[in-house]
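We give its fold:
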Amino acid sequence: LLTRDHGVFVLLKGPEDIVVSPNGTKKIIRGGNAGLTKGGTGDAIAGLIAGLIAQKMDPFDACVCATTVIKEAGEKLYKTKGYAYTTREVIGLIPELLFGRYSLPLGERG
């Protein structure tokens, strides 16, 4: 209702992130861990979404991509640090995980 009535995309962060578009398309993204509950991870997701949209990625795809990459970063860091990793370390993994996921420059995605 909120997404349709106001023409917005919503990303609800949690153990399972939920992305909903104005047309009702919904995606649930699983993964991550409790290490992502610290301050700043939501800001990292928001910044990544903004950067992806600025590069012409569809807003729904940008939300799904950003939360997937952040969750993958948390999972990767957990393997070596447990939950004792920082938001800065999560952000540091974005390029590796993002560009490993896409073979084309982001502006050329179809």
User: Anything to note?
Assistant: Residues 59-81 form the longest helix (23 residues). The longest strand covers residues 16-20.
